[in-house]
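Fill in residues.
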């Protein structure tokens, strides 16, 4: 049975979501604050997380940030914060979808189903993301063909984003937006030189006999080609 994690501090809404999702055949775990959310997230490895942002203690923004450091599990933000800036911030911070309260039950279910269809099994820190690649978020490094590569924060986020979209082109604009939070044209050279540094580190670690997994797609952006 597909397990979902609902992170919501309103007990009435939390129970309603459990009933609604349970009727669709999902197994639902509930967390009422950010710390409990992270504990359940890494203990249970759910297939999807529904995340409120206004939580006591550790808020939803912090939960989302820590989640994205450790996993690519799909995250649907469900929040009363409906301003455009909040929705943009949520998506830039790593949410896969954003739904504003109050919401229609049918729309919530449709969005959950769409995210689950599009996503594969979630990948987690400590597990290989490719046969020869493992991301180590606590050290901001990568294990590539058995050797550890120390990365800058930018290089780590760049590699993480490319790997999350393995096999698909990530445009220069998307990289600027999600890695640098900068969509200006003047920033395009940042991407070019950061990718060059990252590729050099990968080649230096594994040697010339190993194929470089990052491919430049002329006029578009970059793609991580799976080794599998």
């Amino acid at each position: 049975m597909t397990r979902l994690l609902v992170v919501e501090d309103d007990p009435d809404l939390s129970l309603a979501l459990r009933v609604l999702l349970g009727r669709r055949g999902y197994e639902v775990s509930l967390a009422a604050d950010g710390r409990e959310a992270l504990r359940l997230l890494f203990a249970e490895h759910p297939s999807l997380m529904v995340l409120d942002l206004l939580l006591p203690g550790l808020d939803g923004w912090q939960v989302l940030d820590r989640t994205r450091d450790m996993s690519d599990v799909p995250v649907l933000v469900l929040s009363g914060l409906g301003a455009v800036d909040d929705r943009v911030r949520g998506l830039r911070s790593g949410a896969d979808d954003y739904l504003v309260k109050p919401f229609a039950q049918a729309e919530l279910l449709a969005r959950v189903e769409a995210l689950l269809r599009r996503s594969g099994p979630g990948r987690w820190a400590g597990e290989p993301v490719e046969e020869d690649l493992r991301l180590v978020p606590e050290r901001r490094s990568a294990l590539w063909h058995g050797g550890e590569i120390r990365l800058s924060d930018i290089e780590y986020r760049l590699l993480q984003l490319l790997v999350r979209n393995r096999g698909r082109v990530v445009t220069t604009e998307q990289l600027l937006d999600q890695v640098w939070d900068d969509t200006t044209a003047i920033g395009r050279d940042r991407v070019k030189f950061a990718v060059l540094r990252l590729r050099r580190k990968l080649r230096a670690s594994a040697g010339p006999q190993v194929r470089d997994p990052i491919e430049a797609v002329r006029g578009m952006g970059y793609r991580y080609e799976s080794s599998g």
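The chain has two domains: 3-118, 133-224.
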